[in-house]
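Risk register update: the risk of archive-format incompatibility is retired. Evidence:
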Amino acid sequence: MTKRILLSVVFSSMAAGGLLAADISSLIYFDYTHDATQGGTSDGAFNFVRSYLTVTDKPADNLAYRVQFDAGQLKSYTLASGSTTLTDSDGDVVDVNTYSLSSSNAGFYLYVKNACVDWSTDWGTWTFGVQPTNLNYTQDATFCNRFLDLPLMDAHDFVCSADLGMRWGRDFGLVKASAMIANGGGYKKAENDRFKKYSVNLSVGEQALNKKDGWNAGVAYSLEPFQAADDVENKTVLGLFGGWAGMGARLGLEYDTKTTTGATDVVQSILGVTVNYKLPVAGLEAFTRLDRYDPDTDSDDENNETTILAGVKLSPVKGLVIAPNLRLTSFEDSDRDAVTYYRVNFEFKI
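Archived output:
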């Protein structure tokens, strides 16, 4: 079923692209992972991580659209009468109709991640539809290794990478501002309450440090009310970030907090540092990222965890990236063993 749906989407999109002269591109992630946590005794395996099929077009000077299909591998699935619960590779749990899933062949899922239109005006650009959220796109561009791991805010469930809503954005010279209102549930779920998520992003400098040298700094903030018993509480996210690129190096720093109000307020925090450096050998780049996550900053429990991701990227030909790397997660709690993965990640662009 999944294969037939995916093929139908591909051929339909190609047909649409031919008729509308649209641009069609694909981005595929897969890896080989060896879990060395148990003394190196675990077997390694190749994993299909992600595949994107993107259709874009600009039918007018002030109008552009983007449709992106997102296919990934399921981590697990549970069948129950009348419904199916899935956990995808992002760790998100979603419910689907059991009639659309075969229990003997449930290896992949397919989402519409983007289906949006950009309308450019003298007062800024308006974006309508399922679109990228505006809280961490600058930080993601500074890291620029999405095929290795999710952006930190996304990885720790501070934000969802895309959502259904509308956004306004405008550049004021070095200053770039955006404001967004969205459902808040992300692109994988329908709206399930009466509340909306409001977010703003204000930054200065060069946004895409993965493409140009320069610097940036900024702040991102979101507010999302939710119903808790008889009261309306709030979830707020605050992100501070900055970056610099030059002389073959690219550096990024971010500090994020997520506050959930209630009978007891819970504050989570992320401290992230990224470093990329182009080595003297053509097509070779070293990278590392430090991620320190605290699920409750007010708690005295030893609940912090630190993840180090480090390795090198090789681009032997255009469109192919190979990245052997190490991912090590350690815990402040001495009773928890560190988790170690040896991986080779692949990115393939069409």
